[in-house]
Amino acid sequence: MTTASVGELGLVELAKALADGTVSSVAATAAVLDRVEASQAGLNAFRIVRREQALAEAAAADEKLAAGQRAPLLGVPLAIKDDTDLAGTPTAFGCGGDFPVKTEDAESVRRLRAAGAVIVGKTNTCELGQLPFTSGNAFGHTRNPWHAGHTPGGSSGGSAAAVAAGLVPAALGSDGAGSVRIPASWNNLVGIKPQRGRISTWPLPEAFHGLTVNGPLARTVADAALLLDAASGPHAGDLHTPPVLTVSDAVGRDPGRLRIALSLRIPFTATRTALDREVEARVRDTAGTLRKLGHEVTVANVHYGVLSGATFLPRSMVGIREALDRLPGATVDPRTRHNAVTGRILGPLLHAARQAEPLLHRQIGGIFKNFDVVLAPTTATPPPGVHEIDGIGSWATDALITAACPYTWPWNVLGWPAVNVPAGFTASGLPVGAQLMGPANSEPRLVSLAAQLESELQWHKQRPEIWWEPAAA
């Protein structure tokens, strides 16, 4: 198997090739590292690259494979986001500054290592995960593999760009207001926001007061499901421990005939928003495919109400303040400082915001009395230009990100699972997505439905043309 062909493999395929002995972990990891290095000047997906350590870990994995040991990801090179602790590296979370290296892995990383994964590096994210862009003074701009002039989204934009460009077969991200689903949408990827607590956020008992969860980004549903299963599981200190389940089992399983609500209504926003016509058309196309597959799809809007937004703001802003407090000496954008100050002001409202969650479960969850799944746009627009977020004030920033991404955050408030599936491309070739949303602990149903869609649409066969390597420039 050639180095080039290794780069074409997804997570499931590469894990099998390693187990079968048709490729070594050292060869696969070296190929990944070479692609990362070649892409960095153009794509800028990585904050930290662990060449020496990753190759040593790959060599150790090859010894285990040769000895007959097996594990779900043994020898597979993967990337994680730079909000996740990795022993021996700092966790800058998109910020500038010199930070101490972590002495222990986050629980999610510990589980990935236990499954045999080789962590090649940490991917770029915007400051404290606040934006659907991946850029900052500390590292520059991460670009979209499908078009250099556009953002890959955020805040897991580095992970999404790395997977879409074929640098790694899959990567872990995090989602506090859509930060897995948004970049998945804008990079033609599958992105799973799992149930709160499915993947531990330890060393934090919960992240951003329950808004943020970790989740996988991959080209196929099977790859995303495998990574989710490998990373899942609680730490003794977690505040949220949902029932144990395995989602890989749902890939290829017939979901049955489902009642699906097509909901295009935008949740309440304080600024002007509208659904782009091309995005709407692609989501309606997805609804048409679901009907073709035998499902009952009905236009029926989710009742979000005003309260969900009112409870989101204190949780997110207090979370930003606390995240910044954990990075003493960090150099950040004035907008980040502004949000941290807002978090201090909104602190007294945090308790009431958390207490409202059961009411929101009943209000928003009422849609599931008549439907099994909600289908909605993941974003309201295609990916914006990579520099559109640069140098504008806090109000203009809020207006920009709300106009582009008003659909994802309610499911973070609820803590329920949602899956972005690729929905096609605009006339100018930019990817857009649709999200499948379910009630608590419904990942298997969502994964089964997403895999059924993938078998029909074959989105994983579409790859961007390589422009980010020097030979392609």
From TrEMBL:
<dbReference type="InterPro" id="IPR023631">
    <property type="entry name" value="Amidase_dom"/>
</dbReference>
<dbReference type="GO" id="GO:0004040">
    <property type="term" value="F:amidase activity"/>
</dbReference>
<dbReference type="InterPro" id="IPR036928">
    <property type="entry name" value="AS_sf"/>
</dbReference>
<dbReference type="InterPro" id="IPR020556">
    <property type="entry name" value="Amidase_CS"/>
</dbReference>
<protein>
    <recommendedName>
        <fullName>amidase</fullName>
        <ecNumber>3.5.1.4</ecNumber>
    </recommendedName>
</protein>
<comment type="similarity">
    <text>Belongs to the amidase family.</text>
</comment>
<dbReference type="InterPro" id="IPR000120">
    <property type="entry name" value="Amidase"/>
</dbReference>
<keyword id="KW-0378">Hydrolase</keyword>
<feature type="domain" description="Amidase">
    <location>
        <begin position="28"/>
        <end position="446"/>
    </location>
</feature>
<dbReference type="Pfam" id="PF01425">
    <property type="entry name" value="Amidase"/>
</dbReference>
